[in-house]
Design a protein that fits this description.
- With 279 residues, this protein is an alpha/beta fold.
- The chain folds into two domains: 7-64; 87-273, Rossmann fold.
- It has helices at residues 7-16, 21-31, 36-41, 49-63, 68-72, 96-105, 124-132, 145-158, 214-221, 223-226, 242-251, and strands spanning 74-77, 80-83, 114-118, 137-142, 163-166, 178-183, 227-236, 255-261, 267-273.
- The strands form two sheets. It has a seven-stranded mixed β-sheet, with helices on both faces.
- A hairpin with a 5-residue loop joins β8 (255-261) and β9 (267-273).
- α1 (7-16) packs across α2 (21-31) and α6 runs parallel beside α7.
- The longest helix has 15 residues, at 49-63.
- The chain is elongated and about 75 Å long.
- The relative contact order is 0.10.
Length: 279
């Protein structure tokens, strides 16, 4: 009698290990180069020994909290399937709010607005905006060379033209002027109890000082150098940071400060406009 596991056995083992059934089916379908529908139709098929061995490793990694996207090597964001690796954050659905807001504003900024994505990571925000607004001139930055390599591969994958620059926040951009700046910066406190659960993702893209506002402060402080008069700044932040971000923007002299909430009703993004006239 064969000691090889069937598809049904493999999925049952995943459930015993606490894995979500949908996640388990996605994982197994990837290993088998199959689809979830085919798995269901052929659940008595036996796994090849090499697939069984890889399945056991993937179950261990998933049980240890590694994001499903890192195992699959990709994650969908705003209709784009993007490569993700441990060098970048896994794109979150709530960040799509930032993209939607940017797309809402972009028609008011001219035919070919200059848009900057600070701390791009996988390139998710920049690429989603570029796909929807192909005439926009997109620039995206990140201090991580490894992250930019992922972003460039995603741009190649979707044939989207974005300028990628390896810098930290506004560094080296002083001579440029942008119509719209978007950023999903690190905003978790260094001592946040949630950080251990996120240990598989790059800490530098998550944590930002003792209060989580270090990166947000740096971004708002630099708007005079590179955001044109009348231009917009859109920032994602933690659900409990909305008032602090509003205060930073007001202190920087920004106008029309507005808060947007995610689908769960949590304060998730704040935007403001640089005044057109003298302050």
């Amino acid at each position: 009698m064969s000691d090889r596991s069937s598809v049904r056995d493999a999925l049952a083992e995943a459930r015993r290990r606490g894995a979500d059934l949908l996640d388990a089916r996605l994982m197994l379908a990837r290993l088998l180069d199959s689809t979830r529908t085919q798995l269901i139709a052929h659940d008595e098929d036996l796994l090849a020994p090499e697939v069984g061995a890889r399945w056991a490793v993937w179950l261990e990694r998933r049980a240890a909290g590694e994001p499903l996207a890192y195992l699959l090597g990709e994650k969908e964001f705003h209709g784009l399937m993007l490569e993700v690796t441990p060098d970048v954050l896994v794109p979150r659905p709530e960040t799509e709010l930032l993209v939607d807001w940017a797309l809402e504003l972009s028609p008011t900024l001219g035919e070919a607005p200059r848009i900057l994505d600070l701390g791009t990571g996988s390139g998710a925000i920049a690429l989603a905006i570029k796909r929807a607004r192909p005439r926009a001139q997109l620039t995206a930055t990140d201090a991580s060379r490894a992250a930019l390599a992922v972003a460039r591969r995603n741009a190649d994958r979707h044939a989207l033209d974005v300028e990628w620059i390896e810098v930290s926040w506004w560094q080296g951009l002083e001579a440029r002027r942008f119509d719209l700046v978007v950023a999903n910066p690190p905003y978790v406190r260094e001592d946040d109890p949630a950080l251990p659960a996120l240990r598989h993702e790059p800490r530098s893209a998550l944590a930002s000082g003792h209060d989580g506002l270090e990166a947000l402060r740096a971004i708002v402080a630099g708007i005079d150098r590179s955001l044109r008069a009348g231009g917009w700044l859109l920032l994602e932040h933690g659900f409990d940071q909305a008032e602090a971000v509003r205060a930073l923007m007001a202190a920087a002299g920004l106008d029309d400060i507005e808060l947007r909430r995610d689908l769960a009703g949590h304060p998730r993004a704040t935007g403001a406009r640089r005044p057109s006239g003298p302050r």
